[in-house]
């Protein structure tokens, strides 16, 4: 469906290009595709000196770290968002939630 892709693109644009503080809650249980993608990207960067330098250069140029991606279930999302807001020094301007749309079969 492209929900994770759209969320990633929009969150990244708003965070890195326009400077908004963004948080993504990955409620796509049990898949958690955004969290897994972030973990995969971090592993790739940490294993390669070129990618480490490129990431450091990007963060220094825009003075922003990567936005947080928090893994949770849909019924925990509001509590997790509130917990993040209360504990974070930089309050988010936007919070994105991704979740699985339950598909049902219909007989016609």
Features:
108 residues, alpha/beta, three-stranded parallel sheet, 3 strands, 50% helix, globular
Q: How would you portray this structure in words?
A:
With 108 residues, the chain is α/β, with parallel strands linked by helices. The protein has one domain. Helix content is 50%, strand content 14%. The protein contains four helices and three strands, in the order H-E-H-H-E-H-E.
The ordered string of helix (H) and strand (E) elements is HEHHEHE
Helix content: 40-55%
Main sheet properties? 3 strands, parallel
Structural class: alpha/beta
Count of discrete domains: 1
Topology:
Elements: H1 3-17, E1 22-27, H2 33-46, H3 49-62, E2 69-71, H4 77-87, E3 94-99
Parallel strand pairs: 1-2, 1-3
Brief summary:
The protein is an alpha/beta fold.
